[in-house]
Amino acid sequence: MRTLLVWVAGCWTLAGLSPLALANGWNMPVGVTDLSREIYSLHMTIFWICVAIGVVVFGVMFYSLFRFRRSRGAKADNFHENTTVEVLWTAIPLLILVGMAVPATATLVKMYDASDAELDVMITGQQWRWRYEYLGEDVAFTSNMSTPRAQIRGEEARGEHYLLEVDEPLVLPTNRKVRFLMTADDVIHSWWVPDLAVKQDTIPGFINENWVNIDEPGIYRGQCAELCGMDHGFMPIVVHAMEGEEFDEWLAERKEAAAEEALGVDRDWELDELMERGEAVYGSICASCHQAEGQGAPPAFPSLAGNERLIEDVEWHVQTIVNGVSGTAMPAFRSTLNPVEIAAVATFTRNAWGNDTGDAVQPSEIAEQLAQ
Amino acid sequence: MAPKLPPQPPLEHSSAATAGGAAAHHAPPRGMLRWLLTTNHKEIGSLYLIFSLIMFFIGGIFALVVRAELFQPGLQLVNPEFFNQMTTMHGLIMVFAAVMPAFTGLANWMIPLQIGAPDMALPRLNNFSFWLLPVAFLLLLSTLLMPGGGPNFGWTFYAPLSTTFAPPSTTFFILSLHIAGISSILGAINIVATILNMRAPGMRMMDMPLFVWTWLITAFLLIAVMPVLAGVITMMLMDINFGTSFFNAAGGGDPVLFQHLFWFFGHPEVYIMILPAFGIVSAIIPTFARKPLFGYASMVYATASIALLSFLVWAHHMFVVGLPLVAELFFMYTTMLIAVPTGVKVFNWITTLFRGSITFEPPMLFALAFVVLFTIGGFSGLMLAIAPADFQYHDTYFVVAHFHYVLVPGAVFAIMAGVYYWLPKWTGHYPNVRLSQWHFWLSVIGVNLTFFPMHFSGLAGMPRRIPDYALQFADFNLVSSLGAFMFGASQLVFVAVVILCVRGGEKAPAKAWEGAEDLEWSVPSPAPLHTFETPPTFSPHVH
Amino acid sequence: MWSVIKSVLAAFFGVQKERQRRADFETGRPVVFIAVGVVMTLVLIGLVALVATLAAR
């Protein structure tokens, strides 16, 4: 049977090509933490075990198919039982599996030990962005995909890090144990960076723990791994790992900036100032649902441009941003955005796209509301 | 070779029945009404199979929409919302409307013939279980036209994405799954009743063909887990419409509970879709190796073990939801254990081939491809069982590659193998060999082109269920998309083969395959509407 | 009883001598086998859970 020979040849070609599979970009990254390297070696061990079993099993199979073809005059035997063989081929896989379970257990136990961390970072998944909060440091920010929509639509050339770039990466120190506390505001997301070998679901109402100790400075990219709605494919993760001192400097700078922003709450803001700030906030937070021109995508995401209730009722408008609308996709932004940002985005949406109310919502008013 | 055929096949009885008074004393209605009211296991079996084939194409078109969008980076054809509806509908339709009804159809046709029964135990219930399906799936498909679109939360419909954040049509989705679930449960009860009560005199449990055995165990699995699915979707229904908070964290609910319940149903469901496939392959390989199945008893034990263990492994789908360490270890161990009985099955098939006298008719081609490709899916399954490594594999295209290897060249190839194997019995004609070979080779190449590169894109970091991807995954996706269209197109050849075979072709004798042994080969080809009206005498034989 | 347990264990392992199997099917009552099977399944679950608990420490 000629076709059979072709098949066998094809299989061996595939097996011959398998070293290619070990090349970069075809395999799991080795990563930059002790654990990621351990996981990689577990992965390769089990892979080679499978290859070995496969060679034996398929070898016997193809030998039989070739050798015992009727066209070669093979006469059928009639044996159909052999206790020894059956015991052997049950026991041997069992032993291989036990051999595999031992290192896997050891690695898993290590992964679950998040104690003695030097830095705690809270990671919150939101439709469709990540929020990072350095616990005890008063530094928090959201991280949005920065790939322009025009690139996605193919109107512009795609950049090197297409879909894997953000406006503000998560900055982490190298050679320090960092603990992640992970949760979500709306639906389940999953925070995954392959080079760090961290993938953990972020679940509303739950706080999951994971940790990382990066040993090489660099930029590591990942994506949300759990289907979380429309823009699931567009919430990348970028981790910027810096040497300890550099990180400390960065953190100090961010703390200062945060403090400055807090002062801005008390002063009166001009309409233009608020509009400018609000446009930026709208673009990174609101536009993914309510769309760039505020036209929304009804029925799930109502239009803001020309929305009568919004135009007439400032209080309701601000309330909606602050507390969200339960039972819909509109989340509460009271903890995600600071008073300046809320005031700015409210002002922007009240005046953009022909809404032209002329209202300037002041950060101090928002701060008062939030304090209640 | 053990003389399995009864010494005096009851041919006279059956053919006399058809030639004589069957039509007269049953007087079936004509036209559409006949199919709507039929209680004949063969007609209902055909209905199931035709329904499943139509749904296979509908689900396939959804998959091709997905693959067309993923052909190159960027969004070209559909928006992300519709993309999510397509991935979700593809999964739901393939699982609940294509694979499961196909196996039920084969069971309807073949179980009575293989155990020497005149029909299913509960013929009217049989009719009812079938006609629930078109209702269920028309309802499901209609959600695509509703405002807000159809289900867009993946076939696993994790809450709260499928409750608080779901489109308004979700209530219809729940209703349609309820109806499909009732159909499955009723079908399963019917199969259990038939197998336990209607075997030919002298046929003991351990004399039954493996297809019957695997279906018996599958039916128990269905009865055990479909109510769990019904429970969990009812909880969703309450959350959506009646203000409860089973899965809503804001109301004190627990989104992880949903996943535990879903996978307590979902993992046995995986075996529901593969155990009957094992049965089909275990019938075909001995036939074309002309040698009895090696280790019949251990095949039965292995099937039962897999079924039992399938209730103990559900949380391996949840390794990254933050389970406690002990739970993680428990489910890793049980999942690794399940590899043992699965391995035993593969070894048994290969040993059956060893020192046989092998020929390569179309059913055998598909059965052999099943053994090889299902085993590859088994290997990636073993890799996924290693919990620490699963933190890297989970929710990537590696998983997509894994379950498509066990479901497409696994379950679907086994169904096709079964169709090629039993077509001569159903139609009285052999399927066209040339065309069948074309179908086989195009399918094998297409399936591997589609799913093999997914291992690489997954390992390299591509998450599943995304409508657009980073540039380093472009080559893999291009190949996958080309393969998918090739696989899709080759199924048109399959339809051609089936239609041609129904209309004519080389005449098949009662025993259509030289090495075939079970009872179905003792009735004429095509099998008359009524068979085994007088039970055959079954002579026990050595397995 | 011991022979029933042995047979159930053999079924768990997946391999049984044809002679023993025949004997079981001809003399044994199915209910006994099913009951022992269920108990042994619970024992198996307990064992795996125990191993997992020990390993997690």
From TrEMBL, chain A:
<feature type="transmembrane region" description="Helical">
    <location>
        <begin position="39"/>
        <end position="66"/>
    </location>
</feature>
<keyword id="KW-0479">Metal-binding</keyword>
<dbReference type="GO" id="GO:0020037">
    <property type="term" value="F:heme binding"/>
</dbReference>
<dbReference type="InterPro" id="IPR001505">
    <property type="entry name" value="Copper_CuA"/>
</dbReference>
<dbReference type="InterPro" id="IPR036909">
    <property type="entry name" value="Cyt_c-like_dom_sf"/>
</dbReference>
<dbReference type="InterPro" id="IPR011759">
    <property type="entry name" value="Cyt_c_oxidase_su2_TM_dom"/>
</dbReference>
<dbReference type="Pfam" id="PF02790">
    <property type="entry name" value="COX2_TM"/>
</dbReference>
<protein>
    <recommendedName>
        <fullName>Cytochrome c oxidase subunit 2</fullName>
        <ecNumber>7.1.1.9</ecNumber>
    </recommendedName>
</protein>
<feature type="transmembrane region" description="Helical">
    <location>
        <begin position="87"/>
        <end position="109"/>
    </location>
</feature>
<dbReference type="GO" id="GO:0005886">
    <property type="term" value="C:plasma membrane"/>
</dbReference>
<keyword id="KW-0349">Heme</keyword>
<dbReference type="InterPro" id="IPR045187">
    <property type="entry name" value="CcO_II"/>
</dbReference>
<keyword id="KW-1278">Translocase</keyword>
<keyword id="KW-0732">Signal</keyword>
<dbReference type="Pfam" id="PF00116">
    <property type="entry name" value="COX2"/>
</dbReference>
From TrEMBL, chain B:
<feature type="transmembrane region" description="Helical">
    <location>
        <begin position="47"/>
        <end position="68"/>
    </location>
</feature>
<dbReference type="InterPro" id="IPR036927">
    <property type="entry name" value="Cyt_c_oxase-like_su1_sf"/>
</dbReference>
<feature type="compositionally biased region" description="Low complexity">
    <location>
        <begin position="13"/>
        <end position="26"/>
    </location>
</feature>
<keyword id="KW-0349">Heme</keyword>
<comment type="pathway">
    <text>Energy metabolism; oxidative phosphorylation.</text>
</comment>
<keyword id="KW-1003">Cell membrane</keyword>
<feature type="transmembrane region" description="Helical">
    <location>
        <begin position="476"/>
        <end position="502"/>
    </location>
</feature>
<dbReference type="GO" id="GO:0004129">
    <property type="term" value="F:cytochrome-c oxidase activity"/>
</dbReference>
<dbReference type="InterPro" id="IPR014241">
    <property type="entry name" value="Cyt_c_oxidase_su1_bac"/>
</dbReference>
<keyword id="KW-1133">Transmembrane helix</keyword>
<feature type="transmembrane region" description="Helical">
    <location>
        <begin position="399"/>
        <end position="423"/>
    </location>
</feature>
<comment type="function">
    <text>Cytochrome c oxidase is the component of the respiratory chain that catalyzes the reduction of oxygen to water. Subunits 1-3 form the functional core of the enzyme complex. CO I is the catalytic subunit of the enzyme. Electrons originating in cytochrome c are transferred via the copper A center of subunit 2 and heme A of subunit 1 to the bimetallic center formed by heme A3 and copper B.</text>
</comment>
<keyword id="KW-0472">Membrane</keyword>
<dbReference type="GO" id="GO:0005886">
    <property type="term" value="C:plasma membrane"/>
</dbReference>
<feature type="transmembrane region" description="Helical">
    <location>
        <begin position="321"/>
        <end position="344"/>
    </location>
</feature>
From TrEMBL, chain C:
<keyword id="KW-1133">Transmembrane helix</keyword>
<feature type="transmembrane region" description="Helical">
    <location>
        <begin position="31"/>
        <end position="56"/>
    </location>
</feature>
<dbReference type="Pfam" id="PF11174">
    <property type="entry name" value="DUF2970"/>
</dbReference>
<keyword id="KW-0812">Transmembrane</keyword>
<keyword id="KW-0472">Membrane</keyword>
<protein>
    <submittedName>
        <fullName>DUF2970 domain-containing protein</fullName>
    </submittedName>
</protein>
<dbReference type="InterPro" id="IPR021344">
    <property type="entry name" value="DUF2970"/>
</dbReference>
